[in-house]
Amino acid sequence: MRYRKATACAGLAVLVLGVSLAAAQSSLQRRQPDVPYVPTTEEAVRAMLKLADVKQADIVYDLGCGDGRIVIAAAKTYGARGVGIDIDPDRIREAKENAKKAGVENLVRFEENDLFQANFREATVVTLFLLPSVNLRLRPKLLQELKPGTRVVSNTFDMGDWRPEKEQSLPGADDDEAAYLSHKFFLWRIPQRDGR
């Protein structure tokens, strides 16, 4: 009897240790965000969706979605479906709560994922508010995986030598650092591929 108790306790201790190690390993494997969380202003959200010419039939993906405001606005304003992708679980929780408060949880979903691993092939519009280096790393994936004609809109930062179809600035933007973010936007369309 005493042997069975000792064996059961030892087994439980091994199980607890194994679960603890797996949880620690999982948290170590989670990659840190590539950019700090800086919310897009409401004015910039409206400008980005307008520049992309979002319609009800669109599927809007926001890569690095933060609190979900872009896809929520696309759903509320245009009736478009949307998907937000963010690597930060806290942002995903916040985005889901915001979608519920806005009454659009039937049109949007949020995915905790690394945007370099995520599947966003169904997008007709992709929005970004990332850093220039991240845009450049993401560019080949966008060009390879998105359907020709898909619109890509970036807040503040361009894509290097990939020239945008349109650029837009908000009126009254000053040259100070605070006005630098969320005041200039770029639009590209994924080009036709050879043979398609």
Structural class: alpha/beta
Q: What order do the helices and strands follow?
A: HHEHEHEEHEEHE
Overall residue-averaged pLDDT value: 85
Share in β-strands: 15-25%
Q: Determine Rg (CA atoms, Å).
A: 21 Å
Question: What is the terminal-to-terminal distance?
Answer: 73 Å
Shape verdict = globular
Helix content: 40-55%
Q: How many strands in all?
A: 7
Task: Describe the protein.
By secondary structure, the protein is an alpha/beta fold. The protein is 41% helix and 18% strand. Strands 3-2-1-4-5-7-6 form a seven-stranded mixed sheet, covered by helices on one side. Strand 1, helix 3 (69-78) and strand 2 (81-86) form a beta-alpha-beta unit. Helix 2 packs across helix 3. It is globular and about 40 Å long.
Task: Give structural attributes.
7 strands, 6 helices, single chain, globular, 196 residues, 41% helix, alpha/beta, seven-stranded mixed sheet
Give me the secondary-structure topology.
Layout: H1 2-29, H2 42-51, E1 59-63, H3 69-78, E2 81-86, H4 89-102, E3 108-112, E4 125-128, H5 132-145, E5 151-155, E6 166-169, H6 177-180, E7 184-189
Parallel strand pairs: 1-2, 1-4, 2-3, 4-5
Antiparallel strand pairs: 5-7, 6-7
Helix pairs in contact: 2-3
Can you describe this structure in just a few lines?
With 196 residues, the protein is α/β, with parallel strands linked by helices. The chain contains six helices and seven strands, in the order H-H-E-H-E-H-E-E-H-E-E-H-E. Helix 2 crosses helix 3 (69-78).
